[in-house]
């Protein structure tokens, strides 16, 4: 499986969002990570399907919509219709996760499940084979620029072991606090997709930062 970098536009300059996305794509990002926050599930409010639709028009890169919302079942269709290729919902707010995953896949996107730092892998119970990717939150969701929570190493390693043992094919994505300085250690735990926001968008040269990240992956 190739290892991929997903640039989180949460830390981009929103007054120049189109330019920022073009720059980060030219700098070598593999995926655009699109953080949706509703002010209920997380204490912050960001962007919705209208902005995703606009982003879709200016990039060919896959868009990874991370729904940090209390009612994902009611809104996920809007994000896929707007152009999301990957879509993750938080297990903490999905009462019928199996049905939700089926719906995402029927609508044509890759189906992901996000786990908050305290949420056990066991919450995915018996539906691991239905999942295209698992998003391990390595910070508490809601804000960019926070520090990586070290307990996530264990969670990623365990997921990787479960995947190998049962010959499953889900990808493992990490989100939060991913930096040039820790990406190697995180990668060794068995990660496929690395989300990075502030590390890329707060750096002077996106291309240089992405290159350094890849050296550690
Ligand atoms: C946090 C978001 C992340 C955020 C990561 O809730 O889900 O995608 O942008 O930001 P950094 O890379 O700055 O920790
Ligand atoms: Zn995210």
Give the tags.
TIM Barrel, eight-stranded parallel β-barrel, 8 helices, 35% helix, globular, binds D-xylitol-5-phosphate, binds zinc ion
Shape: globular
Q: Strand share of the residues?
A: 15-25%
What hetero molecules are in the model?
A: D-xylitol-5-phosphate, zinc ion
**Count of alpha and pi helical runs:** 8
Mean pLDDT across all amino acids: 97
In total, the number of strands is 8
The strand line-up of the biggest sheet is 1-2-3-4-5-6-7-8
Describe the 3D structure:
The protein has 217 residues and is α/β, with parallel strands linked by helices. The protein has one domain: TIM Barrel, CATH 3.20.20.70. 35% of the residues lie in helices and 20% in strands. The protein is built from eight helices and eight strands. It has helices spanning 17-26, 49-58, 72-82, 97-106, 152-165, 183-188, 198-201, 206-216; strands at residues 4-8, 31-37, 63-68, 86-90, 110-115, 133-137, 171-175, 193-196. It has an eight-stranded parallel β-barrel with strand order 1-2-3-4-5-6-7-8, surrounded by five helices. The longest helix is centred in the C-terminal third of the chain and has 14 residues, at 152-165. The mean pLDDT is 97. The chain binds D-xylitol-5-phosphate and zinc ion.
